[in-house]
Amino acid sequence: MKVHFIVHESFEAPGAYEAWVRERGYEASYSRVYANESLPECADNIDLLVVLGGPQDPATTVEQCPHFDAAAECRLIGQAINANKAVVGICLGSQLIGEALGAKFGHSPEKEIGKYPISLTADGKANSKVAHFGDVLEVGHWHNDMPGLTPGAKILAVSEGCPRQIVEYGTLVYGFQCHMEFTSEVVELLIAASERELATLTDRRFVQQPAALRANNWHEMNQKLFTFLDKLVAEYQGANVK
User: Fold this and answer.
1) Residue 240 gets which letter from DSSP?
2) pLDDT at 240 > cutoff 90
3) Radius of gyration for the chain, computed over Cα atoms and rounded to the nearest angstrom
4) What does the DSSP assignment read for 189-232?
5) pLDDT at residue 241 in the model
6) Mean of the per-residue pLDDT values for the chain?
């Protein structure tokens, strides 16, 4: 399996996704756009495209952020989907999947930063790739927006603060507004990049401050993510048997 990561910022690291790639012995490649690394010209040499989060949103222009080209990323995502590749987007990445499919992103009712529960919907409980999450699972969050919905999209999980936490756009295409890739190391990077902002959010009901963020244990969530990814790979391999 060839897994390609689009990394928007050094502090929005692949975390558990990268650990899963290493554990399974898969091949990883990267477009670290914050370091001006280019996107792949096409999706031919990718089996799984993972588009990570970032402080940008899909409406952010190249003039506003020279290293982030939303239109170019949407083209690659669209090409990967059309080529029957597996695609997973996290936070900004999930919003870019929606945009690539013609669904505009929106603002979440609440800003969520920390570890809070998501609940599976009826579609989520019926989905073989996420049913093992259980009815309720505590996961990571760090967002203010949410992905748009195509006519065929299924919402698999919601939270009290956001009605679109996991979206299935197709059997191989998933958007995670939540951050199941968080590890202690990734959260430290985010805290370092966001301490001033966090200090202004003490009145938000779904925002944890640094001490609480550091106290969270992410292991169970990471293991649930690994199982989801294993099931996605099995689906991909079954769909692409020559």
Assistant:
1) T
2) no
3) 17
4) HHHHHHHHHHHT-TT-TTB--HHHHHH---HHHHHHHHHHHHHH
5) 66
6) 97
